[in-house]
Amino acid sequence: MISACFLLFLGYGCIEYFEHSGIKDISGLLVVEGTIDSGETFIKLSRSGYINATIREYDAVENALVYVESNDGNRSKAGTHTEKGEYVIPNGTLSSSLQYRLLISLDGEEYVSTFQSPLFTPEIELSITKEKTGDPVLVSVSTHDPLAQSPYYRWEYKENWEVHAELYANVTAVMFGAQVIEYIWHDLETSNNKYYCWGADSSRIFILDSTDKLIENRIRLKKLIEIEPADDRLSQLYFISVKQTMLSKEAFDYFSNLQENIDKSGGLFSKMPSEMRGNIICISDPEKTVIGYVDVSVPTYTEKYIERNDGFYERPYNNCLSQITDDFESTMPVFYKTEGEELKAPEDCIDCRRKRNASKNKPAFWPTNVL
């Protein structure tokens, strides 16, 4: 009887009291993530972690040789391992007349995925809608494949947003009890302020859909995310980028199975690990368990900004103005100071970093000129 926790793929889950006589230790399994793409392929390799009753991030694998091979015998150069923990493989443009697979050489073992013909994902359309005041904002996608290559799809998204503190603090005070021991001045012209912040997030589940029971290979308004109208993400400037990938049936079934296990049990291994192997095998030791599915598909991308004046944001009530005080005995930090006046307010009102996922890490591509 064991208790294990895993962080794997886009979600994490804990497995309580998993028992199987055939597998004594399910730590250290090779985990392979990625899709063979046209031009460059990004593959992440890791080892599943296992510590009793403790969540642990999986360990990145940095010493592998990773290639893309076509069924005409051509092999790419070995991938380069990056600081982000991925291998970038320069495999060139995919051809519809060839099949491709991934090769991994690691610690004396050789791994391969199955040969597959590439799928060319159709274009994607992004919709941002809200029916009426008070309703959530819906981010949805639509697509249509006139070639009817495959009816199976997967979507992933990344979010970025800008938020502001409710009150601008031109100074904050380092307090010791009711005594100010140091003033720290802030300038909106530099990054030394608590007024402008940025947040980031990404999809954490497998977002999948299929048109296999429809007459036409068309997805209409597939909901990706729902945002409440008073959410801070919409308060200034919001950005979402979406990746759409057409899948083979085998890949669709694999990711559906993973998500089903996560939804039902909170973990990936509620079923036998052998059922979760995907399409990657260790050819030097066929009994070795490997987790992951490597498909061959050229994804499509789209992105969109939502500005504050687009009408989606509904500002909630906050009582920051009513909490401003000039009481010198207050232990709240100073947020505004002149020679003749010193005002104080709660930290949540003057520090944008108190908002969800917010920090001073401004994305390099962000279009506003604030710091």
Mean pLDDT equals 87
Shape: elongated
Beta-strand content bin = 35-45%
Overall helicity: under 10%
Q: Report the strand count.
A: 27
User: Taking Cα atoms only, what radius of gyration do you get, to the nearest Å?
Assistant: 25 Å
Tag the structure with descriptive keywords.
371 residues; 43% strand; disordered N terminus
Structural overview:
This protein has 371 residues and is mainly beta. It is built from two helices and 27 strands. It has helices at residues 249-265, 347-350; strands at residues 2-8, 11-18, 30-36, 39-47, 59-60, 65-70, 80-81, 86-92, 100-106, 109-113, 119-120, 124-129, 137-144, 152-164, 171-176, 179-185, 196-202, 207-210, 218-227, 237-247, 280-282, 290-292, 295-298, 300-307, 334-337, 342-344, 358-359. Strands 3, 4, 5, 7, 8, 11, 22 and 23 form an eight-stranded mixed β-sheet that branches. Strands 14, 17, 18, 20, 24 and 27 form a six-stranded antiparallel β-sheet that branches. The longest helix has 17 residues, at 249-265. It is elongated.
Architecture blueprint of SSEs:
Elements lengths: L1 E7 L2 E8 L11 E7 L2 E9 L11 E2 L4 E6 L9 E2 L4 E7 L7 E7 L2 E5 L5 E2 L3 E6 L7 E8 L7 E13 L6 E6 L2 E7 L10 E7 L4 E4 L7 E10 L9 E11 L1 H17 L14 E3 L7 E3 L2 E4 L1 E8 L26 E4 L4 E3 L2 H4 L7 E2 L12
Parallel strand pairs: 3-22, 3-23, 11-23
Antiparallel strand pairs: 1-2, 3-4, 4-5, 4-8, 6-9, 7-8, 9-10, 10-21, 12-13, 13-19, 14-17, 14-18, 14-20, 15-16, 17-27, 20-24, 25-26
